Amino acid sequence: MVVAVYPGTFDPVTNGHLDIVVRAARLFDRLIVGIYEESPKNVLFSTGERVEMMSEAVSYLPNVSVQPYSGLTVEFAKRVGARTLVRGLRAISDFELEIQMAHMNRELAPEIEFVLLMTSVNYAFLSSSIVKEVACLGGDISGLVPEGVAVSLRRKYNAVAEHARTRR
């Protein structure tokens, strides 16, 4: 059985991420989506919320599971028995970072292979940061994220706005 890990922050999961999940799930016997707990990014959602959103979004895929992790991604991959790391590419700018990470990971764990999947063209512009900005400003994010994620984003930004109003 060939196990792969698709690691990321997924704050929040977008339809571009799901495109990679669905395609990777066809390539591997088992795909584990690893939700990174210790993101250097300023995350909007807690680890638990991100795990819940991703789990809901991939629930129809029988060979996909979701797990939080901390520490080195290659060490997580070893713990879960993965032989492959999957990453998505949107643009050439992604490639530069991904190739650096792949080489570093190869240095740390030469037994783990790396697969880079190009995101479908309809999602090449999409990032979690863009989705959060559009949602924060009240824009329509339907078609960019799963419905459950859109609901969570609206709820989160409504709570932030309410908190800001009560502090004034």
Characterization of the model:
- The chain is of the alpha/beta class and 168 residues long.
- It has a single domain, classed as Rossmann fold.
- The protein has 6 helices and 5 strands.
- It has a 5-stranded parallel β-sheet, with helices on both faces.
- The longest helix has 21 residues, at 147-167.
- The relative contact order is 0.19.
- The mean pLDDT is 92.
Highlighted features:
alpha/beta; 168 residues; Rossmann fold; five-stranded parallel β-sheet
CATH class: Alpha Beta
Overall mean confidence score, pLDDT:
92
- The strand order across the widest sheet is 3-2-1-4-5
The fraction of residues assigned to DSSP E strands is: 15-25%
Shape: globular
Written as H for each helix and E for each strand, in order along the chain, the element string is EHEHEHEHEHH
Q: How large, in whole angstroms, is the Cα Rg?
A: 16 Å
Distance between the termini: 57 Å
Share in helix: 40-55%
Number of helices: 6
Determine the structural class based on helices, strands and strand pairing: alpha/beta
Fold topology:
Blueprint: E1 3-8, H1 15-27, E2 30-36, H2 47-57, E3 64-69, H3 73-79, E4 84-89, H4 92-108, E5 113-118, H5 128-136, H6 147-167
Parallel strand pairs: 1-2, 1-4, 2-3, 4-5
